[in-house]
Amino acid sequence: MTKQVAHPMVKLQRQVQSLIDSNLLKPTDSIWKIALLYGNEWSYWKNELLEFGFSTQDPVQELLLVDEWDEN
Fold first, then answer.
1. How far apart are the first and last CA of the chain?
2. Which residues of 13-44 are buried (b: 16+ CB within 10 A; e: fewer)?
3. What is the dihedral of CA 13, 18, 24, 26, to 10 degrees?
4. What count of other Cβ atoms lies within 10 Å of the Cβ of residue 10?
5. With contact defined as beta carbons under 8 Å apart, do 38 and 45 qualify?
6. Is the dihedral of CA 48, 50, 52, 57 positive or negative?
7. Is 11 within 8 Å of 48 (Cβ atoms)?
8. DSSP state, 40?
9. What are the tens digits of pLDDT across the range 3-58?
10. Could you tell me the pTM of the whole model?
């Protein structure tokens, strides 16, 4: 039996959704606000987001709309 590992961006989506559910972020907040919550990990996530075509000015709701993270 093969266990599939979730893509790191799926994990980020879940964490961001949790932040929205906890009212720490609003769906319309810019992605850069994640930096305030991720501290030292932000540089990694910022690079990942930029590679997938996101801008730090994009609203976090755009991040949550992605169904599949294809790296091809």
1. 26
2. beebeebbeeeebeeebebebbeeeeeeebee
3. 60
4. 14
5. yes
6. positive
7. no
8. G
9. 666 788 999 999 999 999 999 999 999 999 988 888 888 999 999 999 999 999 99
10. 0.82
State whether the Cα torsion 40-25-71-4 is positive or negative: positive
Residue with tokens 């075509």: 53
Q: Which two tokens stand for residue 65?
A: 């709309």
Amino acid at 28: T
**Six-digit token pair at 51?**
């590679």
Q: How many CB atoms sit inside 10 A of residue 54's CB?
A: 17
Q: pLDDT tens digits for 32-45? A: 998 888 888 899 99
Structure letter (DSSP) for residue 24: S
